[in-house]
């Protein structure tokens, strides 16, 4: 009787060649580098009124009845006062509704109501025709500029101390847009402004004996 033996099978080593995959990854990386737009640093454009330059000389020439000053300080604190600096006591308030926004709306109430009415009229005049829409929008923006630059609108001066943050300044500029303030400036924070803040906080100035 013949002997039957089990045949031995050769063991194959499984090996995956990743060289084509590496080439594919390099092609994909090159493709995205060439086709993807690089992220540009975002900056905020501030449209300052052309008839109100940001300098100390003009800030002192603003009529007392129309002058409003905002002092931005640490801890998201904002101080509001009307009139000429040194002759009015700053009032500490907050950003948004119930704070500085209500004060600015009260000061700019006439212009704000006119613009709200103008917005309603513009919405009613909207057209599907691009040329007509662009024409109506141009007329609307011209009327808004005329209203916000009127003689009965306030002149707001924004001053940020070294302890205020960039976001505080952005919030203050947002309030200008929300309240339809057309005449405002960002001015330098001086030593006199710091004295005004210290007095509002109740911080006494030390005297030399």
Automatic annotation (TrEMBL):
<dbReference type="GO" id="GO:0005886">
    <property type="term" value="C:plasma membrane"/>
</dbReference>
<dbReference type="GO" id="GO:0022857">
    <property type="term" value="F:transmembrane transporter activity"/>
</dbReference>
<keyword id="KW-0812">Transmembrane</keyword>
<keyword id="KW-0813">Transport</keyword>
<dbReference type="GO" id="GO:0015031">
    <property type="term" value="P:protein transport"/>
</dbReference>
<keyword id="KW-1003">Cell membrane</keyword>
<feature type="transmembrane region" description="Helical">
    <location>
        <begin position="21"/>
        <end position="39"/>
    </location>
</feature>
<protein>
    <submittedName>
        <fullName>Biopolymer transporter ExbD</fullName>
    </submittedName>
</protein>
<dbReference type="InterPro" id="IPR003400">
    <property type="entry name" value="ExbD"/>
</dbReference>
<comment type="similarity">
    <text>Belongs to the ExbD/TolR family.</text>
</comment>
<keyword id="KW-0653">Protein transport</keyword>
<dbReference type="Pfam" id="PF02472">
    <property type="entry name" value="ExbD"/>
</dbReference>
<keyword id="KW-1133">Transmembrane helix</keyword>
<keyword id="KW-0472">Membrane</keyword>
């Amino acid at each position: 009787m013949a002997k039957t033996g089990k045949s031995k099978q050769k063991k194959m080593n499984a090996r995956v060649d990743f060289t084509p995959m590496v080439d594919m990854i390099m092609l994909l990386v090159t493709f995205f580098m060439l086709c993807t737009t690089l992220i540009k640093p975002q900056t905020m454009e501030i449209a300052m009124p052309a008839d109100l330059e940001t300098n100390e000389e003009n800030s002192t020439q603003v009529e007392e009845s129309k002058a409003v000053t905002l002092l931005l300080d640490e801890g998201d604190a904002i101080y509001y006062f009307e009139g000429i600096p040194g002759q009015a006591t700053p009032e500490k308030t907050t950003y948004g509704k119930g704070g500085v926004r209500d004060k600015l709306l009260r000061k700019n109430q006439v212009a704000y109501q006119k613009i709200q009415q103008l917005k309603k009229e513009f919405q009613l005049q909207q057209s599907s025709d691009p040329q007509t829409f662009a024409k109506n929008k141009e007329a609307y923006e011209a009327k808004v500029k005329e209203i916000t630059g009127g003689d009965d609108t306030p002149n707001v001066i924004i001053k940020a101390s070294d302890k205020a943050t960039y976001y505080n300044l952005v919030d203050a500029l947002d309030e200008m847009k929300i309240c339809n303030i057309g005449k405002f400036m960002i001015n330098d924070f001086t030593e006199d402004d710091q004295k005004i803040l210290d007095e509002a906080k109740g911080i006494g100035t030390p005297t030399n004996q």
